[in-house]
Amino acid sequence: MARRPSRRMVMSGAAATAALGMTGCLQNPDPADSAGGGTVERYTPGDTPGTGTVTILGAFGGQEMDAFLASLEDFQSESGITIQYTPDSDFTNTIRQRAGAGDAPDIALFPQPGGMFDLAGEGLITPIDVFLDYDQLNSTLIPGFLDSARLEGRVFGAPMRMACKSLIWFPKKAYEEGGYGDKPATMQELYEITDQIKADGIAPWSDGWGADQATGWVGTDWIEEFMLRVHGPVLYDDWVKHRIPFNAPEVVEVFDLVGDLLKGEGNVLGGTDAIISTPFSEAPLPLFEDPPRAMLVRQGNFVTGFFPEDIQANMDAEVGVYAMPTWEGGFDGQPILGGGDLATLFTLNDDTVKVMEFLTSDQFGGEWAEAGGWLSPHRTFDQSLYSSEITRQIAEIASEAAAFRYDGSDLMPTAVGAGSFWKGMVEWLQGAKTSQQVCDEIENGWPA
Question: Where is this region: Disordered (predicted)?
Answer without folding.
Answer: 27-48
